[in-house]
Amino acid sequence: MARHPDAQELFRSVFNAEPDGEWFAPGRVNLIGEHLDYNGGKVLPFALGLHVRVALRKRDDNGVRLVSTLGRQVWESDLEEIRSGKISGWVAYVAGVAWALGSDFGFDAAVDSNVPLGAGLSSSAALSCASAFALTDPAVTGKPRPDLETLVEACIRAENDVVGAATGGMDQSASIWCEEDHALLIDFGDASRRQIPLPLAEAGLEVLIIDTRAHHSLADGQYETRRRGSERAARLLGHEFLAQATADEVRNLPDELQPLARHVVSEEARVDDVVELCDAGDFEKIGPLLTQSHYSLRDDYRVSCAELDVAVEAALGGGALGARMTGGGFGGSAIALCRAGERGKIEAAVDAAYREHGFEAPEYYLGLPARGAHRVS
Fold first, then answer.
1. What pLDDT score does 3 carry?
2. Distance between CA 93 and CA 140 in Å, rounded?
3. Catalytic site residue from 171, 187, 211, 300
4. Residue 234: is its pLDDT beyond 50?
5. Where's the GHMP kinase N-terminal domain (predicted)?
């Protein structure tokens, strides 16, 4: 794992000045509820200890300078260029938030992160959210901070309209709203949220995140294909969202749409079951539901890949209580629910399976529900 981020150190070395402060926003992992956000269903992410930190200082002019430990090259611009929306690369996640918030001051900012890129753990949303907290801090602006809903919406707008990446808001909501030892239940059907108790460490459990380091080009266009298929199924059944359908209705769909709808309806039910178990404190019983979710994503939604399937089966063989792919699919990460102290055995099982299949060795991260975005100093 990368060293602990120190954005302030980078800021001082590059800009030869003290930042006004440092702000933190975490990555996230979705415990269950995959491909349900755009289907009007429920998701259950929690924030990770992996995070982005942004050190920022307000300027007296319209200039903007950004630097990251990833490259250490300084990007220079101004508010006028930012407002044009003609920005690309990682800086768009910072400058795009300034645009979405309507910021009226220039700033210098330094960014550091230990959220792995490409692992499906929302490094980009963490960067946007940390930037939003920095740019709206009353100590920086001299004004009250907007409500958190406004910050989430600004981060979504930045990714959709400036970066050009379609996002439904789960990642930004998790990075900002999550609380320690809780998962965040988000219902995209009615836009409601609820904190769900998930004190894994207290229960002697942990989530092992397995970054497969696999990214398949065959996924190009596959996300949109599944989204369009789901939307068509919902229209045929007369629903606004496919998550509103029942299992009986799914059987009336054309054959080619039934697997997609079957996943959405069954995954929605699994989220409800996991929430009920969390509320009751029966955390070990979550395991089999995670595994069922993976098989549904593999067989019905068809968004898994060999690396994910091997990781899940090896983790289960190594003693995991349950395991599944997480994220959009076709690579990225899998998660395994395990008892504390058994991570080593599960990692060894996955490593052996990857060597047997000739895959690149995966990387591992500990997933315990952490606090959302906040000021560090």
1. 46
2. 19
3. 171
4. yes
5. 93-177
